Amino acid sequence: MTPTHSNADLTDISGVLNAADSTQDSSVLETLYTYASSHGLDPEWSLAQAYLLWRLNRFTELTTLLDSLPCTFHSHSQYWLLRGLSLKHLSQNISEVVHCYEESFRLDDSRFDIAFNLANIYYEYNIGPCEKLYLHSLRLNPYNASCWYNYSKYLFDSARPDESFSALKHAILLAPDDVNIYINLGLLYYSAHRWKSAEHSFTLGISIDDSSYEAHLNLGSLLVSSRRIPEALNVLETAVHLSTPSSPTTNKALFNLGLCHLLQGKFDTGWRLYQNRFSSGFVPDSSFPSSGPIIESLHHLFSLNSSSIVVWAEQGLGDCIQFSRYLILLSNLGIKFDFYCHSSLVPLLDSWFIQSISPKDLSTI
Question: Is residue 137 within 8 Å of 167, Cβ to Cβ?
């Protein structure tokens, strides 16, 4: 029995693949997969099965199928591309994923999607010439909005904002309903201090998809920076509602909510929420000079019965200077500690404290 899909001819592989490319309906994809599976180990139909498993997000089955195929399939660029896509989703060794993409590109450099995926992996892990590949992919298919979008992100990270704007505008023309493009456009405007344009972009993104956490988070952050606190509170509370509980993304919104409450003088709530910076990604794990627990109060410190603690300058120079006065409180309580700060502040703070406290260079840890 042959499946039907619109007026497409599904009696050959191209018809099945065209039907798959034209739908997001999982039930249709399942029917197409079942039909492709009925053709046994015919090379072309096996790769059609593999493609349909990828579209269905059945990555373990996809990898199992590819592993079962004979070595003759290793001469197919599609085999290596699908293998790389599957392994990437299964969080396998990234070097193996790169090898799969590179082998696929070596076998066929005339496919824009192969060049695009190889460019993405090079960009994500900073391991190869991604720009050359993005441009190669765009020469093959200048209508790929995702490629223009990712290329714009690479240009932005390379401190080439004007070119990044240009690439994003191509993406918008090709995919005017993609919320992520407007979010990145807003971030570009924000970096250029074009606040009104940034706000307009984030707001446009929300109008396209009002369930977008990232659009709400970035708009809320902009409103905090603009000291429009009541508006920021409303937007950030929506962001928290939209995010996954206890995730780093939620903590970013909670951190910004903390800033709102602090700016309103609501210090108890503000400082409690501000602690979310440690699990938000704003403070990288590599900046922690100690593997011990974060001490949140004197009561917490005394409950640990620790012989000594580490105090370090987590934020900017001004904050370090302001808060260093409280080190004297620790000394007067007889608490032993090592204090690390920015190298430029070591001479200043050393002269203030004389010999009672000896600041050390944070970069030497």
Answer: no
Q: Which range, of 130-139, 151-160, 209-218, 240-249, averages the lowest pLDDT?
A: 240-249
Q: Which residue has the tokens 């003759």?
A: 72
Q: Give the mean pLDDT of the chain.
A: 89
Rounded-to-integer distance, Cα 186 and Cα 188, Å: 5
Q: Is 355 exposed, middle or buried (0-12, 13-18, 19+ CB in 10 A)?
A: exposed
Cα separation of the two ends of the chain: 69
Count Cβ atoms within 10 A of the Cβ of residue 163 and give its class: 0-12 exposed, 13-18 middle, 19 or more buried.
middle
In sequence order, the 6+-apart residues with CB closer than 8 A to the CB of 221 are: 256
DSSP string, 26-76: HHHHHHHHHHHHTTTT-HHHHHHHHHHHHHTT-HHHHHHHHHHS-GGGGG-
Determine the Cα–Cα distance for residues 303 and 32; give it in Å rounded to an integer: 63
User: Cβ distance 232 to 223 under 8 Å?
Assistant: yes
Long-range contacts from 64-71, C-beta under 8 angstroms, 24+ separation? 69/41
- For residue 40, CA distances in Å to 37, 46, 51, 322, 347 come to 6, 7, 15, 73, 75
Token pair 């603690």 in the structure block, residue: 309
113-150 confidence digits (pLDDT tens)? 999 999 999 999 999 899 999 999 999 999 999 999 99
CA gap 218, 232 in Å, rounded: 10
Question: What are the respective helix, strand and coil percentages of the chain, to the nearest 5?
Answer: 70, 5, 30
Residue with tokens 């080439």: 160
